[in-house]
């Protein structure tokens, strides 16, 4: 479980996070949603340790990040898997080299053990024929799956995903969403996903944290989000014509 | 304001140098990275360095010959002038400036692209010291830069010999007499000391510009240009200071 307590962060005098407090639960897909500029990415980067909060604490299963030594932080980072918006695969490496990278860097596994684990994880994300291809030779959806494989290869306790569906068609987005949810349950990982994709919210939003202008405006599940009266949330959710029409149809039925 | 900005950049550069040596990458991984950098930076540069050195050496010899019109001046001075020009300045300094364009822009654009595409963030999130992972292998690879400069010296003098002798300006024995005339072994030491310093500049300044760049593809191009300009400026300044310290004092 990741616990965020009263986290504040400013850039050049502008307060981007205004005292966020929430928890991200283990074995669940936790979603951070909100409009562009709401502070989602800053919160995610604060969770990852890329940004240091001005005040407040972030703890990983009781370990408060700001109180850890450099070595402890380094150890904690080996427990984290991250799927970046643009996949962030290493261009110079093949798919299997990308996936093997965390194992080569942080474990003392033999070449045979690394190969076995890499093959297993690549199969797990259904990329059986892509082992020797470079990232530039595969599609965006496949790149995302390689990024997921790289993120989970070292059995992380925490998985972070920044806009995992960005640039993908709706069908591939659902495949990626389901894959993340399956992996979260299978390995009992604390997964935190930063998204503004309502399809993801409907598919995998077990816990949803809604940010508006740096404030936690609402939190709940995917079932609750469509029933809430919170104006900020309904404004965001029903900004899509499709959802508006679904709601109108539901209201007529009632 | 501009001065503060420059001082801040210089401070950041030295902090970067210190960070390169912290939290070292596992040797089994680093070994592969070093060999890759040797291939990219050293081996891939040999062709262009050889080509330029050979022909510039030839031109230096011909130019010197054409300017020695006084019959009282011995012809072996052509060999002497070629040796001095190539060993003292052309090979160490001007090849380094050419390499600031070739290697430097390669280093800045490759690290800059990694920054733009979040590959550096990916390394950091995994707990890798990205500066050690990216810059340290380049530093080690460029310890072989004096080897490149040694080849440039040899080929420059060979080009000078061919240009002078086969251009009909002097005989082979006169050229060799010039090469041996008033030879100061310390000049070779001076040239290689310069080369080692230039190698450190070539590895770190382009890395600095790539690592700390912000923006997108356009900014990667701009960073490469700025990196070339600053690497060249620092090499020229270092050349002046080292010459003053090692030869003039």
TrEMBL record, chain A:
GO function term, MF aspect, one: ATP hydrolysis activity
InterPro entries: AAA+_ATPase, ABC_transporter-like_ATP-bd, ABC_transporter-like_CS, P-loop_NTPase
Keywords (A to Z) from UniProt: ATP-binding, Nucleotide-binding, Transport
Record-linked Pfam families: ABC_tran
SMART domains the record matches: AAA
Residues of the ABC transporter domain: 2-238
Protein's recorded name: Phospholipid/cholesterol/gamma-HCH transport system ATP-binding protein
Source organism (scientific name): Flavobacterium croceum DSM 17960
UniProtKB/TrEMBL annotation, chain B:
One Gene Ontology cellular component annotation held by this UniProt entry: ATP-binding cassette (ABC) transporter complex
Keyword Kinase part of the UniProt annotation: no
UniProt cross-references to InterPro entries, sorted A to Z: Permease_MalE
Record bears the keyword Protein biosynthesis: no
PANTHER family xrefs: ABC TRANSPORTER PERMEASE PROTEIN-RELATED (PTHR30188), PROTEIN TRIGALACTOSYLDIACYLGLYCEROL 1, CHLOROPLASTIC (PTHR30188:SF4)
GO molecular function terms attached to this record: phospholipid transporter activity
Sorted UniProt keywords: Membrane, Transmembrane, Transmembrane helix
Name recorded for this polypeptide: Phospholipid/cholesterol/gamma-HCH transport system permease protein
Transmembrane segments: 41-66, 86-107, 139-163, 183-205, 226-247
Lineage: Bacteria, Pseudomonadati, Bacteroidota, Flavobacteriia, Flavobacteriales
